[in-house]
User: What shape does this take?
Amino acid sequence: MLGPPGAGKGTQAQVLATKLGVPTISTGDILRAAVKNGTSVGLEAKGYMDRGELVPDSVVIGVFLDRVSQDDCKTGYIFDGMPRNLAQAKELDRQGIQIDTALSIEISDAEIEKRLTGRRVCPDCAETFHVEFGPPKKDGMCDRCDAVLIIREDDKAETVRQRLAVYHAETEPLKDYYKSQGKLITVENINGIDEATAAVLKALGI
Ligand code: AMP
Assistant: This one.
């Protein structure tokens, strides 16, 4: 899944994972869990994440390869937030990790700023909600595990702008990388989650 922060990658990845019966690997979720658990990776990653910068490739690639080598990834996977720059994309190729399709979810920067400020996340299971576009059943509580939802540190306005700048400079060039390999599919996310899901399924032919 490619696309700027807040484009709906995680949400669509979950839909696809359920439909295809494969796991979603979100490097953002893995890193947030590491920060929460105070591991050495978490300690190294926290500052970068809080500032809206990319965590160094050596750190991310390490935890990612660990995850992708687990048994549940044998029949396929959906990557959410990985690769995030050309060096990571080339490393995946070098490691023989096959990517069939790069699905880019397109959305304007202005819309993203609006969406991210309304995003709420479950600190326990990482399920994502939005106060306007995808509210939980019970106000402020996770539908799955009933935990109190939180606002991500990096969803604050200033950090969101930094993350968008990083996206345009480092991640967006991946569209050309996968386009040149004939793997790029783009879908616009302008009319909410359900329409975006319909567009994603249609684009993938599933
Ligand atoms: P995300 O949840 O995908 O928006 O990721 C949150 C933060 O985790 C990013 O702003 C980065 O600081 C870090 N991160 C996640 N995935 C990567 C990656 N593949 N490479 C570098 N940093 C990452």
The chain has a mean pLDDT of 94.
